[in-house]
Amino acid sequence: MKTFRSLSxxxxxxVAAFAVQIIAHEMTxxxxxxxxxxxxxxxxxxxxxxxxxxxxxxxxxxTKIKRGxxxxxxxxxxxxxxxxxxxxxxxxxxxxxxxxxxxxxxx
Length: 107
Fold this sequence. Notes:
24% of the residues lie in helices and 41% in strands. The protein is built from two helices and seven strands. A seven-stranded mixed sheet has the order 3-2-1-6-7-4-5.
């Protein structure tokens, strides 16, 4: 009986941990910069359907931006079209999508 109870608790913990990962919709996207505006970046990932425009990703004050290993501001990053980029975005259950981190190659 103790084994059954322990196994049940272990399975419940595993299911709960898996559910948390599904709810937290954090994704890492790799692609090429298409366009840059003051508060967002358009990125082509190569997974767009034919005829679809590449997606825009918001950039705000809480977004970490790294150029190589150095953390920089949006202005200092000088993100340019055709530049390779990696971003980490979070899709919360409620509210807008948020870009957590932007990674760029060292210049």
